[in-house]
Amino acid sequence: MCVNDNHSHEHNHGHEHEAGQEHCCCGEHTHEHGHSHEHCCSGEQKTQSAVENMALLNYMIDHNRHHNEDLHELLHSLEASGKNETAALVAEAMHFYEHGTEKLEDALELLGK
Fold it and tell me: Are residues 79 and 107 both part of a single domain?
């Protein structure tokens, strides 16, 4: 099922998702940092080259690391202000970010073989 989706975040990159992937949203949505996706529900599936896939994986790995650094700063700020329960949730989210990044690194390694 395709739905139009407009929402904002904050980075600068773009890539396309096409039919046959996990989700299909007709339309484009941008994030505050200029991040945009084009989702196509036409039934066509675009195949990217190994080089393009590796570049995107490298980008996402670096992107996730940057977000985790931001979350680390937030964690310390929350702890300093006595928001320990909130800080614990941020620490848990950081763990999942790290785990996801490790999986992307594994995927990059496999793709490079």
Answer: yes
Other Cβ atoms less than 10 A from the Cβ of 94: the count is 18
Nearest to 97 by CA among 61, 56, 54, 73: 61
Token pair listed for 69: 């650094």
Mean pLDDT across the chain: 75
8 within 8 A of 32, measured Cβ to Cβ: yes
pLDDT digits (tens, 9 = 90+) for 61-77: 999 999 999 999 999 99
- Determine the structural domain holding residue 79 and report its residue range: 50-111
Answer with the one of 47, 63, 85 that is the final residue of a domain.
47
Report which of 9, 2, 8 is spatially closest to residue 67, judged by C-alpha positions.
9
Instruction: Answer yes or no: do 59 and 43 share one domain.
Output: no
Flag whether the pTM goes above 0.85.
Answer: no
Confidence of residue 36 (pLDDT cuts 50, 70, 90): low
Structural domain total, the chain: 2
Separation of alpha carbons 46 and 103, rounded Å: 23
